[in-house]
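Journal club prep — side note

Before the paper discussion, L.F. wants everyone to see what a predicted structure for a comparable chain looks like in token form. Sequence:
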Amino acid sequence: MPDQTIVLVHGAWHGAWCYRRVAELLRRSGYRVYTPTLTGLGERSHLLSRSINLSTHIADIANLIRWEEIEQFVLVGHSYGGMVVTGVADAMSARVSALVYLDAFLPTAGKPFHAIVPPEVADAQLQSAKESNGLSVPPMPAAAFNVNEADRSWVDALCTPHPLATLTQPIELTGSYRRIAAMSYVLATQNPAALFDGFARSMKNEPACHSYELPCGHDVMIDLPKETAAIIEAAAARVVSER
């Protein structure tokens, strides 16, 4: 049985709940799996406040690693979670054995999330945040991400507003995360929002990166949990083979 730890980080509006199927599959295979919910979201939505920014979410994961005393682990990030896991990996590169990006945004040092998305996306989110006086961005409907029809009402029921300040705070990176020897990028080919094609292409040029495509909507861990778990397991297996 594998003696490895995997940390799954969700994206905007989501929570630990979105990884339920993937986490179960990985645990059946013998992995230790953590699915933290970022502050202000999901079952922690009662903590939503203006003080929550990107640094808060990076600290959520970094503190999990420290207090659970996890020495080596595979770090997985979906969508906005790509910002978070890159920040964590940059700060804790010696502990991260592999990075897996699931249809995820790749940050640029010194820039906020809103600087790496098309201006119309950032403007729309800022406009929608006015409903809460700039506190948060309301969830997008699951249909906009092409979540499979059977799960759309479930996803819509569990998504919660996302703290706006996490999208406007520039990320600080030293570049240490680039020393991680094993990386994977998964592109969802049926995501109506073509926001991730450029990130996927850039990762194909990284020698340490294994690239994948999954024929589903943006929420790969919900639409194709078996295939998503298999890709994460493959990343973990490569770490073992390279030891």
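L.F.'s comment for the group: The chain has a mean pLDDT of 96. Keep this in mind when we get to the figures.
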